[in-house]
Every structure is written in structure tokens, then in C-alpha cells.
Amino acid sequence: MGLQKNKGVWNMYNDLKGQVAIVTGASSGLGKAIAKRFGAEKMKVVVNYLDQEKEAKDVVNEIHRLGGEAVAEQGDVSKEEDLDRLITSAHENFGSLDVMMNNAGIQTETYSHEMSLEEWNKVISVNLTGTFLGSTKAIAYMLDHQIKGSIINMSSVHEVVPWPYFVHYATSKGGMKLLTQTLALEYGGKGIRVNNIGPGAINTPINKEKFSNPEEREGVLSMIPMKEIGEPEQVASIAAFLASEQASYVTGCTLFVDGGMKLYPSFQAGRG
Q1: What catalytic activity is recorded (predicted)?
Q2: For residue 25, which of 104, 106, 246, 247 is within the disulfide window of CB 3.0 to 4.6 Å?
């Protein structure tokens, strides 16, 4: 099966046609790219957003243009009742839930010794608790409806690479690694796969200012063996693969999309 371009978005997995997915944090950045890729695969998508309603509805319209189906659904992933509503939306609008894409996440930069408990809790509650809630509630639905589904969590290279000034973020992603592996081990026998995607430096709106500064951009490139900044569509391609039957024997893994960032690039010239 060859990779094909569908109205500006790559698609290739015929088995995804008609499957139902929830994508959290889908109004911008990686979530938007993943939701659009799922649309190009002719999937039915619940486009979750926190406060960007117009942007979410634009994503819904784009999915329709690509040949998929979609609805926008507001919700804070750190709140249990909001995750319940997302699951209900998938069931009531499309009759199923085959793929749960836990993408929503936040980050802030602070010296660790100056970080408030409130700031710590906010990042942990969205990134880690939100992924726990999204994963376990999707798994419960899949078990109830005898669905062999796929849970995909948006981790980071920082599940293995320490990140000063972002201790809450790195901790949330490190926790996500064992959350994912534990759920994969626990529910693999039920046909439910659980995997992570670990992006590196990706050209998303949150990084726009940094990458537009030549000095900062060069600093980032120095940490990437491939000397390229990634694009959201490259991450979305991994999400589509993990959702598809072509990844039917893949579970408990993190697939890194980082140009080699986690490979200790300072050793690239053979020094050390």
C-alpha cells in the first residue's frame, strides 16, 4: 500500500476508515495535525479543545473536507467529568471508540527551587493525570464494548532526557512512560494496545518564537543529529501508524520522533 496525498495531507491506512477516535488538545499544534491525519484516513474524530472553540471548529471543517467526520467537544482533560463527556460524545455521535489519542499537554519554565506547588500541580494534572484519565476511561469503554482498540499517549524525548527548569514537565513525561507500559502489560491480553509518541523539537505554535530567532534555532539544531526541526505532520504519521492494524503487534513502546535528539548528540563527532 503506497503513501498517498489526500488534499494536502498524507494518508495510507485503509483499515482506519470509519474508525472512531478522540484527540485531546486538537485545536492547534500536534493535536490539530493528528486530527487532520485521522480525517484523511476517513476516520470519525471527536476534536477536543479547552478554550479555542473557533480553531476546533476549523479543524472539524478541515476533517470534513478531507473526507472524514468530526465534532468539536470542549473539555479540560484534568477533570474526570470532562473525560466522561468526551467518551459519551464519541459513543453518541459515532457509536464507538477505537482510538484514544491523549495529546493535550502544557509546559512552563521555572527554576525548580522557585516552582510553586500550584504550578507543579497544574502541569502534572494536565499532562499525567489527564493521560491516566483518558487512557483508563477509554479502556473501560473498550472492555465494555469488546473493542480491541489503541491508546496513544503524547509523551516527549523528556521521558528519558532530563530538562532543567521544566522539572514538572519532565516528571510528567517520565511518569507517562511507566503509565503506558503498565497499562500495555495489564490489558494486552484483551487486545488493547497502549503506546507513546515521543516528539523532540517540532515546529508548533508553542515553539514559533524560539525557532524564529536564528541564534536560538541554531542552538536547538545543535542538539539534533539530523540537523532538522520536525514538522507536526511527521508526528501525525506515527499516530496513524500506531492506530492502524500495521502496528497490531506493537504495545508498551515509545516511538521517538526527534531526529536523534535523545542520542547524546555531543558525542556525534566521536569525542568522549
Answers
A1: D-glucose + NAD(+) = D-glucono-1,5-lactone + NADH + H(+); D-glucose + NADP(+) = D-glucono-1,5-lactone + NADPH + H(+)
A2: 104
Q: Which residues, 6+ apart, have CB-to-CB distance to 58 below 8 Å?
A: none
Distance, in Å, from the CA atom of 181 to the CA atom of 196, rounded to the nearest integer, reads: 9
Q: What is the pLDDT of residues 191-203, one digit of tens each?
A: 999 999 999 999 9
Domain CATH for 244: 3.40.50.720
**Number of domains comprising the chain:** 1
For the chain, report the end-to-end CA distance as a whole number of angstroms: 44
Digit-coded pLDDT (tens) for 221-249? 999 999 999 999 999 999 999 999 999 99
d(CA 29, CA 47): 13
**Domain membership of residue 239 as a residue range:** 14-256
Tell me whether residue 252 is in a domain: yes
- Model-level pTM? 0.94
Is residue 223 within 8 A of residue 165, CB to CB? The reply is: no
Question: Active-site residue 187, yes or no?
Answer: no
**CA dist., res. 69 & res. 89, Å (int):** 13
Beta strands in 3-43 (DSSP E): 4-6, 9-11, 20-23
